[in-house]
Amino acid sequence: GHGFWNFSQTIRFFDRELKGKGTRPAIGEVVWSGTGEDGWKVSTVSDAPSVEFYYALEPLRDPALRVDPRVQPDKWKWEKLTAARAGTDGYAASLALTAEVRAATQAVHVFARARDAAGVEACSPLVTQTLVSAPK
């Protein structure tokens, strides 16, 4: 009932997690730098040959709503950012948002995903850049 199974990836997962064989690629926390009209730079340190960044926009909430204001991450729409090598041990990407998008967004959430040559993945912790204070 889980749809398509990638058997080689599943075997690598069990070898790594249950048998202690192999390792995940190293990846650091995403760091934000530069802000404002031109957008942001995001970067991370990783020994992996491939890194991708993903971001999701958390919209402003209507203060008139009387429901739990938290939004679950699985409800956010994740977009991929193109990452490029930044030095010998890191990757970087740029994120630019239009003025209209910034005005309608409370926060931007980003994480990085590293993949080694065998396809083994590791993800950084999720980090947040607040654009506007949440309405009270």
Please give the structural blueprint:
Elements: H1 7-17, E1 31-33, E2 40-45, E3 50-59, E4 79-81, E5 84-85, E6 90-95, H2 99-103, E7 105-115, E8 121-123, E9 127-130
Antiparallel strand pairs: 1-2, 2-6, 3-4, 3-7, 5-6, 7-8, 7-9
Explain the overall architecture.
The model has no long low-confidence stretch (mean pLDDT 78). The protein contains two helices and nine strands, in the order αββββββαβββ. β5 and β6 (90-95) form a beta hairpin. It is globular, with a radius of gyration of 18 Å. The strands form two sheets. Strands 3, 4, 7, 8 and 9 form a five-stranded antiparallel β-sheet that branches. It is mostly beta strands and 136 residues long. The protein has helices spanning 7-17, 99-103, and strands spanning 31-33, 40-45, 50-59, 79-81, 84-85, 90-95, 105-115, 121-123, 127-130.
Tally the helices.
Answer: 2
Relative helix content: 10-25%
> In this structure, how is the largest beta sheet organized?
5 strands, antiparallel
* Rg value: 18 Å
Q: Shape, please?
A: globular
Intertermini distance: 43 Å
Mean pLDDT: 78
Number of strands: 9
Structural class, judged by helices and strands? mainly beta
What order do the helices and strands follow?
HEEEEEEHEEE
Could you list the spans in which at least 5 consecutive residues all have pLDDT below 50?
A: none
In what range is the share of β-strand residues? 35-45%
